[in-house]
Amino acid sequence: MTTDSNAKAYWSATLGLLTKVLIIWALVSYGAGILFAPLLNNIMLGGYPLGFWFAQQGSIYIFIALIFYYAVKMGQIDRKFGMQED
Amino acid sequence: MELQTLTYLVVGASFALYLGIAFWARAGSTSEFYVAGGGVHPVTNGMATAADWMSAASFISMAGLISNMGYGGAVFLMGWTGGYVLLAMLLAPYLRKFGKFTVPEFIGDRYYSTTARTVAVICLLIICVVYIVGQMTGVGITFARFLGVSSETGIYIGMAIVFAYAVFGGMKGITYTQVAQYVVLIVAYTIPALFISLNLTGNFLPQLGLGSNLAGTDVSLLSKLDQVVTDLGFAQYTTQSAGSTLNMVFFTISLMIGTAGLPHVIIRFFTVPKVADARYSAGWTLVFIALLYTVAPSVGAMARLNLHGTFNTNVGIVQKADGGMGIDAAVASAKADLFAPEASLMYADRPEWVARWEKTGLLKFEDKNGDGRIQYYNDKTKNEAAKAKAEAAGWKGNELTVNADIIVLANPEIAQLPNWVIALVAAGAMAAALSTAAGLLLAISSAISHDLIKGTFVPDMSEKSELLAGKISMVFAIILAGYLGLNPPGFAAATVALAFGLAASSLFPAIMMGIFTKTITDKGAIAGMIAGMFATAFYVFAHHGIFFIKGTEYVDLIGGPNSFFGLTPGAFGTVGAIINFVVAYLVSKVSGTVPAHVQAMVEAVRIPKGAGAAAAGH
Fold it and tell me: How far is B190 from chain A (nearest CA, A)?
């Protein structure tokens, strides 16, 4: 594999991961927290209506998980393509 | 000990700590001044960034906003946290790999143009200056309320403290004071919330308390709050929306990309050793921010319930024998009539804190029906049942106005917590304002000394003179910030909307396109930034006046308030960003190609391999 095509493959793997994370990011905040919140409010999570919980609590926890997931996966992608720092 | 003395002690001790750190962490080189030497641990940087980011607005105002806005307050919660996902994936690691000191420097190099760099400097200066005004007024308010000095004196003291560690310590001094300030502010924010949650629900974790039943009952806290506020004619707490669904979506996007594009936050990620560290550091930042942001909704909701409970005894909140506000299980479960004549609190029996806050003018009582009792409800309600009941009870209009900022500042008093907790909140509010002010001052001074003076006018400047120039620009920035804090332009909340709108519509798209495309040209980027910035400023100024000067609003010219698809000015940053993307794309189409060496630079930025510490030279 030439360095050039390796860099291309690395970049498309990066973009693939990015897209996946952004989809979940949008689903929990704009989806569960806003668009589907009225619907989800029919389900209760303890004393929380579920849509309200996503908007004011759940989305934040999921954001944290997403960043660490991204950081770990990117580390793997870096090593797979030999792009990690020395 | 008396409250005033105790507050002086706690705040004084926190200031002494910051000054001690400032003395220990002095900056001796430009690298230490701009990026703390580039060797900050990702967790340390996460904590410092959390303090850098959480401003007087987050600490003092946000819970109050949520308290009033109910569910709709989620735009701030999601907007100001979701931005870190974007920062971690779209900007921070790549800018760290680029390995320079400032945001305009990246824009200037990527778009191979000093003009682009200068436009970025202007955007940055407007954003940071607008933002810093809110911090200085926050310091002033806190001093005035808790230490009994005038808000002017408070601002002077705040300027002196920031001067000490920001001018001598640069990014190095700021980083370690921000870590200390984070600890102070998070402890100050959490402790009252733990007490209140325990008192109301028996569950000491506020995140769980908000989803629990009221202590000793099988009524959930949120359903009780919904019942009380709707009975009194307010919108239902858990479903009250912030404008239309479209507005909520655009508002949240605007805050998210605005957050990711804030220069004083971005430059904090230049201080970590590696690209991989920048990714993890964004995660740690959000962990530390979430410790406050997941507590804020509980603070807001519980304060709202306590507030109604204080003025209406039929809510079922009572003062317990050991201090603290607790639940009267029988009354709380019974849904007693809030309009019963004896339920409204006698003005003569009001708690001490009400009298204290009346003096500040942030809380006002007017006995409209002359019965000596405080009727606190929504007299402009469209809820006919509530209206009829209020009329039948002889209520002649709402008699209490409560400024939203009270929610956090007076929260410990409303909940009748001990004096040391109140003193701690004062120190926390100060820490939040000072840490953000310092970060903004550094962003301003590095843009002036590094991008304008060295980058544009005196390129062959020695490192020693650049460091001196940085310190002098910092001094001027502090004086300017103090002046604006003393003479604030009109609207504090609206100025923040402008800061986020501009960051969202100018810097964020320019940086992102710089990394993720190789086709956007210098002219495309410049046109995009200017178009995005002007469109956003035009819409915000239409509502709040040109540069917030009263009387210069031109909202009729654009067809009335929120005329663009019902969007509020705060939500318009998203539209500005879209305009920026579209204009940049179209202009690039017709303005030639990006030079090969710049394309190579973009390719190098995309891979972590070969990153060194952030450095000045080319």
Answer: 16
Residue B64 to residue B189: CA distance in whole angstroms: 13
Interface predicted TM-score (ipTM): 0.96
Alpha helices, H only, B235-295 = 245-260, 263-266, 275-293
Reduced to 3 states, what is the DSSP secondary structure of residue B102? Answer: coil
Residue type, B574: T
Run of H or E including B207? helix B206-209
Residue B533: per-residue pLDDT: 93
Asked if CATH classification 1.10.4160 holds for the domain at B3-219+226-299+418-487+594-606, the reply, yes or no, is: yes
Q: What is the pTM of this model?
A: 0.93
Can you give the residue ranges of every domain in chain B?
3-219+226-299+418-487+594-606, 301-414, 519-593
* Tens of pLDDT, residues A34-46: 999 999 999 999 9
CA distances from A34 to A49, B38, B73 (A): 13, 40, 12
Contact B47, B178 (CB under 8 A): yes
Q: Which residue of B has its CA nearest to A10?
A: B607
Per-residue pLDDT of B198-247, as tens digits, reads: 999 999 999 999 999 998 899 999 999 999 999 999 999 999 988 899 99
The CA angle B252-B253-B254, to the nearest 5 degrees, is 90
Choosing among A2, A64, A83, which should be mutated to test the B contact, i.e. which has the most B CBs within 10 A? Answer: A64
Cβ(B19)–Cβ(B157) below 8 Å: no
The token duo for B150 is: 């005038």
Structure tokens at B480: 């300017």
CA atoms of B560 and B395, how far apart (whole Å): 34
Nearest residue, CB atoms, A67 vs list B222, B282, B603: B282
* Closest partner CB to B78 (pick from A11, A29, A64): A29
